[in-house]
Amino acid sequence: MKLTKHLFTGAVALTGVALIGPAQAGTATGSLDVSATVEPLCLVSTTPVDFGIHTNSVNTAEGSIRVTCSPTVAYNIAMDGGLNVSNALERRMGDGLGNLIIYGLHKIGTWNDFWGDQDFAATTKGTSIAGVGTGVDELRIVYGYSNYSFLPMQVPGFYQDTVTVSVHY
């Protein structure tokens, strides 16, 4: 019976320690600051301006620029003069053999308002388009115009140019 009494007393003592837990003298608190900085961001994508098959007349075509900027971020969309820009700041498509066709890119379909970069780099005629980001995709139409009727007959071939679109924000 003595052994049973000691086992029972030991079990009660261990249970008592497990239920009481560690002793606490008090509680101290503090605060943790959490912050983040969101940098302004703009993304741009394009669809080509394709004049199609050349004819000796006025040719028009449309492409597009899509811009997505962080909400409230002011931006300007500018386009340079392309790979074949002339001293007169005219855009020109080339066939790689030195033959060129003059064309224009415009902000509106009336062909009067050249879309360029004179307010930034001045590599071509025209100015940029301003906007304010909304956080969603914004579509801008690019109007292409080329008047082949006043040019001499062109050498047959594929003519192209690459224009850099820049979003300044």
Detailed description of the structure:
The chain is mainly beta and 169 residues long. The protein has a single domain (42-161), classed as Sandwich (Immunoglobulin-like). Helix content is 11%, strand content 31%. The protein has one helix at 2-20; strands spanning 42-47, 58-69, 74-79, 91-94, 100-106, 129-132, 138-147, 165-168. The strands form 2 sheets. A 5-stranded antiparallel beta sheet has the order 1-2-7-5-4, with no helix packed on it. β4 and β5 form a beta hairpin. The radius of gyration is 35 Å and the shape is rod-shaped. The chain starts with a helix and ends with a strand. The mean pLDDT is 86.
Based on the model shown, name its key terms:
169 residues, mainly beta, Immunoglobulin-like, 5-stranded antiparallel β-sheet, 3-stranded antiparallel β-sheet, 1 helix, rod-shaped
Strand content: 25-35%
Query: Helical residue percent?
Result: 10-25%
How many discrete domains? 1
Per CATH, the architecture is Sandwich
The H-and-E topology, N to C, reads as: HEEEEEEEE
Give the number of DSSP strands: 8
Query: Number of helical runs?
Result: 1
Numbering strands along the chain, what is their spatial order in the largest sheet? 1-2-7-5-4
Low-pLDDT parts are: none
Q: Report the end-to-end length measured between terminal Cα atoms.
A: 89 Å
Under the CATH scheme, which class?
Mainly Beta
Rounded average pLDDT = 86
Dominant shape: rod-shaped
| Named CATH topology | Immunoglobulin-like
Radius of gyration: 35 Å
Tell me about the largest β-sheet. 5 strands, antiparallel
Structural class: mainly beta
